[in-house]
Amino acid sequence: MKHKAGFVNIIGNPNVGKSTLMNVLIGEKLSIITSKAQTTRHRILGIVNGDDYQAVFSDTPGIINPAYELQESMMDFVKTAFEDADVLIYMVETGEKDLKNEAFFNKIKQVKIPVLLLLNKIDQSSQDLLEQQVAYWKETVPNAEIHPISALENFNIPTVMKRIVELLPESPPFYPKDQLTDKPERFFVNEKIREKILMHYKKEIPYSVEIETEEFKEEAKIIRIRSVIMVERDTQKGIIIGHKGAALKRVGSEARKDLEKFFGKKIFMELYVKVNKNWRSDKNQLKRFGYKD
Fold this sequence. Notes:
CATH superfamily of the largest domain: P-loop containing nucleotide triphosphate hydrolases
CATH topology of the largest domain: Rossmann fold
């Protein structure tokens, strides 16, 4: 039996459900899911193995017109998704017309690899609107196969997965068959803490935050973690900590519970907050946090 393997890269505007799709396809919650835009900052790989295939899925940041260095770096991750894709998933939702960045939109229409256009959130659409949308996208992106789905309800996902496997090129696996992702443990600690901040804080606070895990020490029955929440201003530090530390305690408690499920071990977590002024516009800081090579 010949083996297939390839990179399946997911792109689209913010809030179209890319992270939900990624997590459903791989059967694990690797990507952050919140109702806020720009939740995904990095390119995250999730690996699905069958007896005769390996699909390496890639969740990328939502496509935007960047306003500062961090967002420029986020769009660099999207560019790489075009460079190594064997199958490109372009995800849209009902009512959407095109990408927020016209250059990326034109790239999609010109790529030579298979493109699957997934029309998401059809559970929130009428049949008439769905038919109009399918017709619109067939005309707008003629090189794409159109698949209506609901990532949240797992509707039509098995059909899409079957089609992805059919489109994969013949190749030995790129990663060991027991590997789930390309990211280290500390990355998922950082992301889980950031997810809780996105959920509980408003306005600019979640977008001014970066997490750095300084210690990840795994013992037989417990993992000891020490992480630092970086903010850009002293006022943000106070908001993150909250009255008598209550807000920070909630973030730590919720992140710890989720990480215990993820790692299958008890977690002891220490959280601190530090001011790191203007880190989002500092190329050296962005490199330190893994946004630039």
